[in-house]
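[Automated response] Your request has been received and processed.

Submitted sequence:
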Amino acid sequence: MNLQQLIRYVQIFSVTIIFVGSFIGLLAEVQKMIISYQVNLADLLLLFIYVEVMGMTRIYLMDQEIRITYPLIIAITAISRLIILQNKDLDPSVLVYESVAILIIALAIIILRLRYLKGLEPKKNQK
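Generated structure:
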């Protein structure tokens, strides 16, 4: 077994642990909602984060690459959840900073997706 194969097996093992952990977290959150007979927006956003992490691990195992937009979408969801869960007594500037962070991440996603539009790709062998 060469070093590349060993590293690949470690990556697969690590991503599998991440997937299993996300799945267990999802089940625990659903169980908590069932026991409390209550579903909040923050709970739904947390479920969405779990699903996105599982989707990211699936794509990594299939394509052996992580698309940068997945972690960015997860970050937007996490910051949104943070905004929803924060105290109303908190300094309003914190809300502005968090909102600006979401805006910056959203702009980054747009820029990343724009580079794949036809006509914006760099041309090969221009004369």
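Summary generated for your ticket: The two ends are 46 Å apart (CA to CA). Residues 93 and 124 are 47 Å apart (CA to CA).
If you did not submit this request, please reply to this message.
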